[in-house]
Amino acid sequence: MRPFDVFTRWRPLPSTESQAPTQEIDRVHTRYPNALVSTSLTPPLITKITHCRPWKSNPVFTHVFEGHDTNKTVFAKVVSPILPRVLNGETCNLLAYGHSGSGKSHTIIGYDFETADEFGLCLAAARDLSAEAARLNEAVENGSEDELGIGLRMYELRGNSAFDLLNSHCKCHIREGYDGQTHIRGETEVMSDGRVRVRPIVTKACWTFDDVRRELLAGRELRATRTSTVHDQSSRTHAVLEIELVTRALLDARDAVIERQSELVPVAKRATDVYLEENMKAFVRTEDGKYVPNPAYHIDEARIHEAEARQAELEGYVQDAETHVNELMQSSSHPCLGGKLVFVDLAGSEYYHEKSISGSAPRAKQTPQEQREGRQINTDLLALKEVIRARALKQPRIPYRSSPLTMVLRGHFEPSGPTNSYTAMILTASSEATQYSATMNTLKYGNLVGVAGEDKAGAAARKA
């Protein structure tokens, strides 16, 4: 089985771009015996075009969607087959990659939240998972701790920061913990009793599909858009949407971990302060600036031990709370508990050094800040490609630390516990002739990550 799948979705010619050349990119899709598809592109016949060349991919694409295919068609082919894996407690990742204006946000999030056939993939998936949760809840008392629901998290990544789209666009920080896992934390709250609480990305508990739709719509409205090399309403951030099957008991247990951690912080700080105070008193500074033992003071070991014992006690409470979360996951009567779908609407890739095609509209000049953002986006996308390739080739070192994007996705690519993960990428490509270079670069990106994921059976079939 391939470690991941790569799909291509062609966008039709937008009716609003009537002034642009109506010629489409000449493309041919060839299916090979291993059921994978290769794509051949031919430069459009536009006068004075000299920098575009024909290109052909390897047979790496699982399926190609044409311009007339709807979101419903894409969902049936890409998302519906993996829902059983989510209902088995696994993590599945779906990433949309493409240049600005090629249809990534339309595919992943969608713009019509009322017409079922036009739902984006995430909303359609939430609809089906909510229906399955409702079916399983028929045997559970309404409002009980075992009632299944949808845990929704939605945030965007820009540079080295994250912004919680379900919590008033609160700025969060991306940090790697002592356990090697990446954590996204909000601002530090100092409580009246001295506790220090640092909340993770907010999880909105949704017990009906209407709850999911309302929260998702609110989050979408807060996503940042700016000018790109293609249009002035481009998504300039990577949006991450997590849909997880949860119970009230699981959410309460996770909140308990946060509370125990908030109790530990001031106690651990005091233990450190006590240790430093005692050791500083045990030394004095001489006239020549050297520190020597203070004969008039003996370190109060009992005070240090008392503070450290209290810290160890609180650390035990944190560990007990984390153990309770793991026990809930393992002992639940619902095998789907913790199953997760992660949708990533990647920021549009940028190509600043392309020559313009004759007949195309001139591009708006970008500010230095917009150019810096574009370079950061390209850095993130390059790092993502290298991580996917390294995972597919089973390399001993996976370069997750190359960018904040890959650091965040690490927990989804390699979920903790016994669950597995699956990843698919949807390449959104414009069929407009003036977008030939950007489209070819998008398919080249997919070709590079797809080649690494080819299995030996597929290679043997092509040789045959």
Automatic annotation (TrEMBL):
Alphabetized Gene3D superfamilies for the sequence: Kinesin motor domain (3.40.850.10)
Nucleotide-binding listed as a keyword: yes
Gene Ontology MF annotations: ATP binding; ATP hydrolysis activity; microtubule binding; microtubule motor activity
Alphabetized SUPFAM superfamilies for the sequence: P-loop containing nucleoside triphosphate hydrolases
Region (Disordered): 355-375
TM region positions: none
GO CC, any one term: microtubule
Binding-site residues, ATP: G98, H99, S100, G101, S102, G103, K104, S105
Swiss-Prot/TrEMBL keywords: ATP-binding, Microtubule, Motor protein, Nucleotide-binding
GO BP term, pick one: microtubule-based movement
SMART domains: KISc
InterPro entries: Kinesin-like_fam (IPR027640), Kinesin_motor_CS (IPR019821), Kinesin_motor_dom (IPR001752), Kinesin_motor_dom_sf (IPR036961), P-loop_NTPase (IPR027417)
Domain Kinesin motor: 3-452
UniProt similarity note: Belongs to the TRAFAC class myosin-kinesin ATPase superfamily. Kinesin family.
Name under which the protein is recorded: Kinesin-like protein
Originating organism: Aspergillus calidoustus
